[in-house]
Amino acid sequence: MSSTAESDAAGDTAVPPAGDAARGGFVSGLIRTARPRQWVKNVLVLAAPFAAYAADPVFRMDVVTDAAVAFVAFCLVASAVYLINDAIDVEADRAHPTKRNRPIAAGIVPVRVAYGMSIALFAASFAVSLVSSWRLLIVIGVYAAVQIGYCLGLKHQPVIDLCIVASGFLLRAIAGGAAAGLPLSQWFLLVTAFGSLFMVAGKRYAEIVLFERTGAKIRASLSKYSASYLRFVWATSAAIMIMAYSLWAFEIRQRTGTNSVWAAISIVPMVVAVLRYAVDVDGGNAGEPEDIALRDRVLQVLGASWVVCVALSAFL
């Protein structure tokens, strides 16, 4: 028997080793469906505390703790959304050449179990959020509601799907500030919003390019996009993000009341990193932004350089 569904159909006749293997496959499949690799996106909850620290370099342990709580809460709610998404799309995924290998579509994880686990993760996320504050609970609730709407059909609406996916990144960044009760700069929100739209448009552009190269099946909303339109979106978003960040960097220098040039210098690694990432976008290779961040050593060095510059701007 090659799948859990087939093993279940055999009833009690399955021998114990096969049952153990099936249970192992089920647990592994459940973990895969929760997509822990995607949790790297939740590091964005640290953005607001880091930005606030750059403008006012006072170390507060409670802020670090609240940000950690927000990170855990987003990991739980994001995994809950992935489970719902795969359960809703199970029939479509079974007809897809690669998505049919997803645990739910392959029958390794039953649909009912996926829904049940999703409810449990939603509840756990809400409970963890309350450890920090009611403000974080509201952000998590908004994220969950928007993402469920996305799973139920909004992902098939052009432009709306781009905005919803981008809002997921923005809400992660807002969550860090909400958890710690930190005020959010207008520049911070602009940089995060358009940076998110830049990445999402780049991801969709990669899917369009893949379709043009291989003829692979694409999501319904993409059939209403053109490569040139998505180029326009990610290029415009990148330009606005760079402009907003530059204005923000100069504001940080003025707010701290120092003559430090490090905030302005931080513009350099930031812009170079955007241009570096744009190479992957332009080549249609930005379908998985987290994979690029994990494998591109130059991009990692640029990111580390940016962090150092912003940190130095708080002290020098």
UniProtKB/TrEMBL annotation:
InterPro entries reported for this sequence: UbiA_prenyltransferase, UbiA_sf
Principal cellular location given in the protein's record: membrane
Subcellular location field: Membrane
Parts of the chain that traverse the membrane: 67-84, 104-128, 134-152, 159-181, 227-248, 260-278, 298-315
Superkingdom to which the source organism belongs: Bacteria
GO cellular component: membrane
CDD domains: PT_UbiA_2
Keywords: Glycosyltransferase, Membrane, Transferase, Transmembrane, Transmembrane helix
Pfam families attached to this UniProt entry: UbiA
Lipid bilayer topology: Multi-pass membrane protein
A GO molecular-function annotation: transferase activity, transferring alkyl or aryl (other than methyl) groups
Name by which UniProt lists this protein: Decaprenyl-phosphate phosphoribosyltransferase
Protein's organism: Actinophytocola oryzae
